[in-house]
Amino acid sequence: MAGDTQQTGSEYIQHHLTNLTFGHTEHGWGFAHNAEQAKEMGFMAINVDSLGWSIGLGLVFALLFRWAAKRASAGIPTGWQNFVEMMVEFVDGTVKDSFHGRNPWIAPMALTIFVWVFLMNTMDLIPVDVVPYLMGLAGVHFQKIVPSTDPNVTLGMALAVFVMIIYYSIKVKGIGGFLGELSLQPFSAKNPVVQAIFVPINLALELVGLLAKPFSLGLRLFGNMYAGEMIFILIAMMYGAGWILGTFGGVLQLGWAIFHILVITLQAFIFMVLTVVYLSMAHEDH
Predict the structure, then answer these.
(1) Active-site residue, 224 included
(2) Domain segments of the chain: what residues?
(3) Contact between 50 and 38 (Cβ < 8 Å)
(4) Does the pLDDT of residue 5 top 70, yes or no?
(5) Between β-strands 21-25 and 28-31, what pairing exists: parallel, antiparallel or unpaired?
């Protein structure tokens, strides 16, 4: 598709960055055939490709790790079991360093986040034209296979983390303690009248910090992965510009893919660590 002369550069880029969207338009329910129809569907539209690939990769993670758990033995681990044990030990050590409360759910959740986000990011290493071309043969107009390049997915995960932050903040500190942290810090005073004056200031500052957590968590992952995907698409366009640029593009794509492995792993690690740190802060009762 990169060498398709029927598409301009902007059309090629727009096609690869458009989700397979299902929703309602003036013509009824159905899949969008262009970006304008997808925009017309509004908030209730569903990005079927992002949802499908993220759920599928989650199932891959669950099945592979379940398979390793069922085959685990007391002897020396080999192969896949050894890799899974290394992953579990790595995540467990990271949680012990970052989480200072007591909650048996944090380490399994951190492992799920790290592996799931890593698998979603890894889809960016598949050549950008392969899956859209195959899906096009089946009559599917659009197909984005990297769920973490969809802000709906990354902000959805961040929103789930935010809900857990609120839940554990209230559970550990009580509603009074949680509201006290929001309204009595960072400025405090012994005089009740002066403290009452500081309350709205503290509340405004703390609410901004609280709401910034899910937005920064989701947008950081989306921004880095979206930029990486865009670079792959721009390099792929060079294949249709002659054999010299095509050869140079192949070298660039290989180099960027090798470098992007670091980005893929780092973004999954950052998302996991920040989640653990935010939940650790929610468990701390000042």
Answers:
(1) yes
(2) 55-128+147-283
(3) no
(4) no
(5) antiparallel
The active-site residue, picked from 98, 169, 202, 224, is 224
Structure tokens at 154: 């990354």
Catalytic choice (103, 152, 220, 280):
220
Instruction: Please identify which residue in the block is written with the tokens 């199932």.
Output: 59
Is 66 known to be catalytic?
no
- Report the predicted TM-score, pTM, of the whole model to 2 decimal places: 0.88
Instruction: List pLDDT tens digits, range 224-240.
Output: 999 999 998 888 887 76
CA distances 7 to 18, 115, 138, 180, 225, Å, are 15, 37, 20, 59, 25
103 is catalytic: no
